[in-house]
Amino acid sequence: MKNKKYKTGDIVLIKSRMNKIIPKFHVRLLEKKVVKKTKGNKIDWPGYSGWECELIYKKEADILRKKFQIPFKFPNDIATFVYEDEIIS
User: Fold this and answer.
1) Consecutive 10-residue averages of pLDDT for the chain (89 residues)
2) Contact 47, 33 (CB under 8 A)
3) Residue 64: which of 56, 75, 72 has the closest Cα?
4) Count: domains in the chain
């Protein structure tokens, strides 16, 4: 679904690329970030795009905090940055 155009305020389902056992969770997209690739001294840094987002369901935040020790405080925290390829629907 990389080609789908998301906009601020969309509610999407996320699958974490960091750990495959973390369950899918819903977030609201807040602000899109696009970083162009840059050339470094020793390596070239790839570009990426993603979203600042917030959790929208307290139950999902509780599961992430209790079972996986991810320190989200619902509803006050901005949840995380998610890459566009982590959005599954």
Assistant:
1) 77 88 92 93 92 90 87 71 90
2) no
3) 72
4) 1
